[in-house]
Design a protein that fits this description.
- The C terminus is likely disordered.
- The termini are far apart.
- The strands form three sheets. Strands 3-4-5-2-6-7-1-8 form an eight-stranded mixed β-sheet, sandwiched between helices. A seven-stranded mixed β-sheet has the order 9-15-12-11-10-13-14.
- The radius of gyration is 25 Å and the shape is elongated.
- The chain is α/β, with parallel strands linked by helices and 388 residues long.
- The protein contains 14 helices and 17 strands.
- It folds into two domains: 172 residues, Rossmann fold, CATH 3.40.50; 158 residues, Nucleotidyltransferase, domain 5, CATH 3.30.420.280.
Length: 388
């Protein structure tokens, strides 16, 4: 194997912040770009402790560890006596080492500290596992992933100030054979023929965030809220310790409906919800989860107009169908609602066959959205409201 200094590696070398997030498509050279930089650093600086982490040991063996061995051999730096095949730890002559372990090893997550952390395909691990690793890392943190859907990196990491973020694609990897390039680019043509291939090209060809296969709400677009959009009503889903309370506004705009996230927060008391309703000038009817009659009554005692949403048999499916039957937009600032839309999928059975019910997750703002549209559109002439 010949080692090639690719465009991907040159771009990685320009990253200077402590946390370096690398989003990329297939064959973009993410792992083959990051690992040589870690090897070079380990050789040049003595006694460095570097951890490469992934979801499981089998995943490491067929991915990052396999690539590491290829790279260090191509560089002519491999010494078999320095590689402990039991602990998956390679120790350099100067005392630096690169170790490989998985997040399903709890003692490793909460064990020794390190100088540098590299989480390979970080979208396959949960945020708590990442955080346990991050707080035990004194130096650089590298995160890479294929953006199959939005996840904790978008909400928890990219909002921080000490973060570099780049997107790599197959075009940044000059080491690819023409055959692989042609295979990838064939998907660009297929993308015109189906939503599956359109999503595949979005994620693996362009390195842009896509949607999970089997999402419940398929046809929606981001939009900046037009000035002439008209408020129809609000939808609210109650939460507290584990789930957020969510509130969305439903607007009418030409022949479409726009949804805008207003509240998405855990730990809110009803008095605090009331304060937020007032602060956001919520004057129209709020349709809320009928399973919380005490909360609805308390909010109405504060002067709001909150009504329990009517729930019937298969109300979830009815609401999702109603959303999918209409032209729907979501405001660009509705980050949590957008994240839910990208991750709210149909349940599958043991054989992978899609079932006619969604997962019970990523559905708090969507439930609020559903309450609004089902209450608003059950009577197409609604619009002149009165206080109950």
């Amino acid at each position: 194997m010949e080692f090639i200094l690719t465009t991907a590696i040159r771009k990685l070398l320009r990253l200077k912040q402590r946390i370096k997030v690398i989003r990329g498509g297939t064959s973009a050279g993410k792992t083959f770009g990051i690992l040589p930089l870690l090897i070079d650093k380990a050789i040049k600086e003595p006694n460095l402790e570097i951890s490469v982490v992934s979801e499981s040991i089998p995943h490491l063996r067929r991915g990052a560890l396999k690539d590491f061995l290829k790279i260090i051999m191509a560089l002519g730096r491999y010494n078999d006596s320095q590689f402990n095949k039991s602990t998956l730890k390679y120790t350099f002559a100067n005392g630096s080492y690169i170790e490989f372990f998985s997040v399903d090893q709890p003692d490793k997550l909460r064990g020794a500290r390190r100088n540098i952390l590299y989480v390979n395909e970080c979208n396959n691990i949960d945020f708590e596992s990442y955080y346990q690793l991050a707080i035990r890392t004194s130096g650089d943190i590298w995160l890479d992933y294929n953006p199959t859907s939005a996840f904790w990196v978008d909400k928890e990491i990219l909002t921080q100030s000490d973060v570099d973020f780049i997107t790599l694609t197959y075009l940044d990897n000059e080491a690819l054979s023409d055959t692989i390039v042609q295979e990838i680019e064939a998907a660009k043509v297929k993308a015109l023929t189906s939503t599956y291939w359109a999503n595949w090209w979005q994620v693996y060809g362009l390195g842009q965030t896509g949607s999970l296969e089997g999402v419940c709400i398929t046809d929606w677009q981001e939009i900046d809220l037009p000035q002439d959009a008209r408020v129809l009503c609000y939808g609210m889903d109650f939460g507290y310790s584990n789930d957020p309370t969510s509130l969305v506004t439903m607007y009418k705009y030409n022949d479409a409906y726009i949804f805008d996230e207003v509240i998405y927060k855990k730990g809110l008391l009803n008095s605090e919800i009331s304060n937020l309703l007032k602060a956001n000038n919520v004057n129209e009817i709020v349709y809320a989860d009928s399973a919380e009659p005490k909360s609805i009554a308390e909010l109405n005692s504060y002067g709001h107009n909150v009504l329990p949403v009517t729930k019937g048999k298969d109300s979830i499916l009815f609401g999702l169908n109603l959303i999918n039957q209409n032209k729907v937009y979501v405001t660009s600032k509705s980050k949590n609602l957008i994240n839910e839309l990208r991750n709210y999928i149909w349940q599958t059975d043991k054989t992978g066959i899609k079932m006619n019910r969604p997962i019970d997750a990523y559905n708090h703002a969507i439930d609020a959205m559903r309450y609004a549209i089902t209450s608003q559109l059950e009577n197409p002439h609604k619009g002149n409201y009165f206080i109950y």
